[in-house]
Amino acid sequence: MGSQALSSSRFFPFSWVALNSSQPSSCLNPSVLPLKSKNPPFPLHANAITSPFSLLRFQRLNPRATLDEKDQSPLLVQQQEEEEEEEEQEEVQTQINKDVEESVKVLKNAAKTRKVAAEEILSALSVIEKAKINPSGFLQTLGGSKSPGRTWMLIFTAEKQLKGGRYFPLTAVQRFDAAGKRIENGVYLGPIGCLTFEGRFTWKNRILAFIFERVRVKIGPLNPFEISLGQKEDREPSTKDPFFIWFYIDEEIAVARGRSGGTAFWCRCRRVTT
User: Fold this and answer.
1) Residues 31-51: what's their mean pLDDT?
2) What is the CA radius of gyration of the chain?
3) Is residue 225 part of a domain?
4) pLDDT band for position 234 (50/70/90)?
């Protein structure tokens, strides 16, 4: 029986101790336990004798630690790739911002002097359209915070796909009232008179759709007369109606494309009353 206990103890030392607990206390002395082996099946320490379950936990956790060490390198590589991608995106966005800033300067100079070449304006419009600037503050800048809103003078109109364009030859002014959701589009001919259209608009994301409800005509010194266009007030404007897609708006200039595909830009101006 002793040899059997000795043989089994090499593989199950803690079972051996439990089964032979009736022997004298001297058998619990580590020096007489059959634990010495050139190739023990697993490492032991002092607490293993009193806590066999700790050894089992150690055996279970050790392979996990090994796996974590193996997985560490791919994780670091992935993190490095993500950081490099973020840096590239930041560089691209920085360059886009610079290009937009230069393009805006071109348009503002064109609005002031009307001497910038059409090719330069078309190139600037193309850069601004492709930049896809966040439109969250566009409406507030375009139409102000209270009625009657803000007025903008049309400076330049471009053909579809920016194939050509020219400075607008007449005084055309649009008024946008963000508080009242009203729009007014007028052509002013000085002492000859003016023609204005007024209506309402809706705004969604960067799209301003509108419906004209009435037209006003003024000829010379005569009082203006008004003509109703018969639009129902219960219908909201939609993309089935005329609309603008706005690409850029600040306190001085605004850029948008119309439903027909042509692009234009305006500059901020005072309200025209005659």
Assistant:
1) 46
2) 41
3) yes
4) confident
The backbone region for 239, taken as left when phi is positive above 0, alpha when psi lies in -120 to 50, beta otherwise, is alpha
Helix axes 52-113, 118-131, angle to 10 degrees: 160
| 41 to 12, 44, 58, 153, 163: CA distances (angstroms) | 10, 9, 13, 89, 82
Question: Which range marks the domain in which residue 125 is found?
Answer: 94-268
* Among the listed residues 160, 150, 225, the one whose alpha carbon sits nearest the alpha carbon of residue 180: 150
Pairing verdict, β 263-269 and 165-167: unpaired
Indicate whether 125 belongs to any domain: yes
Structure tokens at 150: 């803000």
pTM: 0.69
With respect to residue 110, please indicate whether it lies within any of the assigned structural domains.
yes
Contacts of residues 35-40 at CB distance under 8 Å and 24 or more positions apart, as own/partner, are 35/9, 37/10
Query: For residue 58, what are its two tokens?
Result: 């150690």
Closest listed residue to residue 264, CA positions, set 250, 237, 244: 244
Per the structure, the count of domains in the chain is: 1
151 is written with which tokens?
Answer: 């007025």
Q: What is the pLDDT of residues 164-191, one digit of tens each?
A: 999 999 999 999 999 999 999 999 999 9
Beta-ladder partners of 194: 188, 218
d(CA 57, CA 169): 86
Q: Which residue has the tokens 């566009």?
A: 138
